[in-house]
Design brief:
By secondary structure, the chain is an alpha/beta fold. The protein has two domains: 119 residues, Rossmann fold, CATH 3.40.50; 176 residues, Dihydrodipicolinate Reductase, domain 2, CATH 3.30.360.10. It is 35% helix and 27% strand. An eight-stranded mixed β-sheet has the order 8-9-10-7-11-12-13-14. It has a seven-stranded mixed β-sheet with strand order 3-2-1-4-5-6-15, with helices on both faces. The radius of gyration is 22 Å and the shape is globular. The chain starts with a strand and ends in a 5-residue tail after the last helix. The relative contact order is 0.15.
Length: 341
């Protein structure tokens, strides 16, 4: 059986979804929908699926089983709601919605109608992350002391409707929850707006998880190159994930030799062997969409659920509230240095 799937939104991510779905076994790309004239030109030139400008017309004429929602974040709630009302299973690009109240509404609606609601936290499908989680679950690191993420990139002019907390940090909020199987109980944060006209474009946050692990999260749109890294430190050493190259390495705690000075006998960590694991490289988006088909078929999946998506948005909002209440440096380069004058 091939699932009839539509893609709503033909921006960068929507076009990639359509590309992968067009060649994915078990999926039948039956429609694409986006009101932009550039989207129509792309669809007619590159895709075999029928193009629609109007979402209601697409639902009426094609009746898809499922849809990918890849519209701007501010439109996630209204578009997803229309599709759920039409009885369509959904994979919504992260974040699930611009606000936690909207995300909660979509989750409740999907549950009431018995529809699948997944969220495109695609980093879960990065093969290096998949292998890291397998090793953490197997206890190879022992106790996890700290999980630290760095997600830094040049300013993306396409993202005007939200800041880095909702658009960027939700990636790593979800990853931390996914890898630790735990929830943060305390959040503190600082934000700054340097270039974005309306929202924060730099964020540093500290999360304390129920089990005692500390999370350190950096996200910004002010760095002149892409950085995507995750470090997990514990009893036996540190795992490092390079998201872009899909590499997983382990830095082992070395054995401390007994020395002849009192400093040599102090208890602590010393540098040991480094191992880089062989990880089969795949396109995370293709893994994500294959996993969505598994979800539709009732099989186990690594996808983030609607509940996971709601949690990520809620925690991102907590970061913004914490930054505001703790005295964020705030609105401009000038404001950021006012306290020094």
């Amino acid at each position: 059986m091939a699932w009839r799937i539509a893609v709503v939104g033909l921006g960068n991510m929507g076009r990639n979804h359509a590309r992968v779905l067009a060649d994915l076994e078990g999926a039948d790309l039956v429609a694409v929908c986006d009101p932009a004239s550039s989207a129509e030109r792309f669809a007619r030139r590159r895709l075999r699926a029928p193009y629609y400008e109007n979402l209601g017309q697409m639902l009426l004429q094609q009746s898809p089983d499922a849809a990918i929602v890849a519209v701007p974040t501010s439109e996630h709630h209204s578009v997803a709601r229309t599709l759920l009302e039409g009885g369509v299973h959904l994979l919504v690009e992260k974040p699930l919605a611009a606000k936690s109240g909207q995300a909660a509404d979509l989750l409740a609606m999907a549950e009431q109608r018995g529809l699948h609601l997944a969220v495109g936290h695609v980093e879960r499908c990065n093969p290096a992350v998949v292998e890291l989680r397998r090793r953490l679950v197997a206890g190879e690191l022992g106790r996890v002391f700290q999980i630290a993420s760095r997600r830094r990139t040049p300013f993306p002019a396409r993202v005007m409707d939200c800041g880095v907390a909702i658009d960027l940090a939700t990636h790593d909020i979800d990853l931390m929850r996914h890898l630790l199987g735990d929830e943060p109980v305390q959040v503190s944060a600082r934000t700054v707006r340097r270039f974005h006209p309306t929202h924060e474009d730099s964020l540093i946050a500290l999360l304390t998880f129920r089990g005692g692990t500390v999370g350190v999260l950096e996200a910004d749109w002010v760095t002149p190159r892409k950085i995507r890294m995750l470090e997990v430190t514990g009893d036996r050493g540190m795992f490092v994930v390079e998201h872009l190259s899909q590499e997983l390495s382990f830095y082992q705690n070395g054995a401390r030799a007994q020395g002849w000075t009192s400093l040599d006998n102090l208890v602590g960590v010393v540098e040991g062997d480094m191992t880089r694991f062989a990880v089969g490289r795949t396109e995370p988006l293709a893994v994500e969409l294959a996993s969505f088909l598994d979800l539709l078929a009732g099989r186990t999946t690594v996808l983030a659920s609607g509940s996971d998506g709601l949690a990520a948005v809620r925690i991102a909002e907590e970061m913004l509230r914490a930054a505001a209440s703790d005295g964020s440096l705030g609105t401009s380069p000038e404001a950021a240095t006012d306290h020094l004058r």
